[in-house]
Amino acid sequence: MFEAMQRRIVSFLLRIGFGVVVGLALLWVMFVPSFGRCGCRLNAKESAAIATLKIVHSGQGQFRDTAIVDSDHDGHGEFGWFGELAGSSPLRGGDVLLQPFLSPAFGKGNAGRVLRAGYLYQIWLPAKGGGWVTEGDVREVDGKAAEVTFRCLAWPLEGKGKRAFFVDAKGTLYACSNSDFRYQGHERPLPVEAAVPTTEPLLAHTGSQTVGPGDWYPVQ
């Protein structure tokens, strides 16, 4: 009898403990906002921007692996522009992609920029002689360097996205606080030169630490 009573008491305490845990979890979800390393509340537009950059990176990888563009004729493919990836503009070489790697919506850009869910996106490829070139520029793409690197930047069209983002050829996605709206719309674009990861000590920051505007850190 005593052992049976012990089992009932333990079962009762476990139920209470489980209920407390569930209750606290619900309170956290309801009343505690989700924050990134920059201390900004994450919103749907930022989440969509992160997902879009991952899609772009995947499309770029497939595009390069097929060697559809190989301007130096060395058998190694190069990364491409939005228009090329979406099949909306001729490839470097004259043909048009019949099986696009990105949605046709990515081909509806202006001056190399594409608007998706409140964020502007822009692809940069390495330029001959150094630096970067974007779609529509007069400078030529460095075919050899374009086999290994590209950058796709993303910044808010209006002041509803408190972070800016970019993804590199390795698939690492970076973000920086944009709480001061330094990057916004076509008037204040994110320069490719500014999209540079900060030094290693900053990358070690935890979610409770604050990262200032212009400081880049990796995100999942």
Topology:
Elements: H1 2-31, H2 44-65, H3 82-86, E1 113-116, E2 119-126, E3 132-134, E4 151-156, E5 163-168, E6 173-177, H4 200-203, E7 216-219
Antiparallel strand pairs: 1-2, 2-3, 2-4, 4-5, 5-6, 6-7
Structure description:
With 220 residues, the chain is α+β, with helices and mostly antiparallel strands. It folds into 2 domains: 1-32; 34-219, no CATH class. 28% of the residues lie in helices and 16% in strands. The chain is built from 4 helices and 7 strands. Strands 1, 2, 3, 4, 5, 6 and 7 form a 7-stranded antiparallel β-sheet that branches. It starts with a helix and ends with a strand. 33% of the residues are buried. The model is unreliable at 1-7, 9-41 and 200-208 (pLDDT under 50).
Report the sheet-strand fraction.
15-25%
Number of domains: 2
Backbone shape: globular
Overall pLDDT confidence: 79
Please mark out the parts with pLDDT under 50 across 5 or more consecutive residues, or reply none.
Answer: 1-7, 9-41, 200-208
Count of runs of 4 or more consecutive helical residues: 4
Structural class: alpha+beta
Integer-rounded radius of gyration: 23 Å
Distance between the termini: 54 Å
| Biggest sheet record | 7 strands, antiparallel
Name the helix and strand elements from N-terminus to C-terminus, one letter apiece: HHHEEEEEEHE
Helicity level: 25-40%
Strand tally = 7
